[in-house]
Amino acid sequence: MSAPFVTRFAPSPTGFLHRGHAFSALCAFAAAQAAGGDFLLRIEDIDATRVRAEFEAAIYEDLRWLGLSWRQPVRRQSEHLADYEAALDHLAAEGLVYRCFRTRREVAQAMASAPHGAMDTFRSAPLPKAEEAARLARGEPFAWRLSLEAAQGRLGGFESLTFREEGLGPNGETGLIQARPELGGDVVLARKDVGVAYHLAVVCDDALQGITHVIRGGDLFEAAHVQRLLQALLDLPTPVYRHHRLLAGPDGKRYAKRDKAETLRALREAGMTPERLRQEMGL
After folding, report:
1. Which CATH fold topology does 1-79+247-283 show?
2. Where exactly are the structural domains of the chain?
3. Cα 156 to Cα 153, 160, 215, 229, 234, distances in angstroms
4. Can you tell me the mean pLDDT for 192-210?
5. Is the per-residue pLDDT at 176 higher than 60?
6. Rounded to an integer, what distance in angstroms lies between the CA atom of residue 244 and that of residue 221?
7. Which end is more exposed in the chain, N or C (fewer Cβ atoms within 10 Å of the end residue's Cβ)?
8. In this structure, which CATH number among 3.40.50.1820, 3.30.470.20, 3.30.428.10, 3.90.800.10 belongs to the domain 82-210+228-236?
């Protein structure tokens, strides 16, 4: 008996879906059908400051219009915050995260003033315990950041971290990929204002839902590196990754939620059919 094939489409209800979303959802759905596997829908709604109920309702409407169906129930991240908090608590207990009190502006300034010029990533260290306690007592906001130094010490280096890429990375990467989480720096895993961040939530979700194949746009290829590290630190399975090309408009720019004329709702109102949309996208 062959191993199960489970993939997912995981939009955030912070705007209406557009052509690019349709392409990604259709790619994942087709892959699941071809493998005789399962296609799941996940609603990534942990950013309560930006999500709206009307956008979530539109996701279901748009995907059904495309002819997609998915296994029930739909996992909504906002209903599973305890799962992410447990993962964060585990990392904290292992000394793998630290509180960072710097603002986004201060982080940018620190990177720009680095000894060797502007850096692409941010790395720091925990504050002395007395200073940290004083800041906490004053109620200062902070973010939980993953400590690459601590993670490297825990794993004895990153050389053993790899993941399988069945699609293509931005530079043609495919096959067995050496993960390089250091390229992302000490990433934020949680903030006081929006709670847990994307990287931590997604690795927990993929593991809890039994995702075997992550099929998504090539703009998220770099995210696989830090996600692979989190999987190792949390003893979670690593799915196969399949990153696909990004759709671009006539101006050469990839579609975004701000492109209101290209939302699936607008296209449908203009007379577009799912069949014609598939043809235009090369499916």
Report:
1. Rossmann fold (3.40.50)
2. 1-79+247-283, 82-210+228-236
3. 5, 9, 30, 12, 15
4. 91
5. yes
6. 9
7. N
8. 3.90.800.10
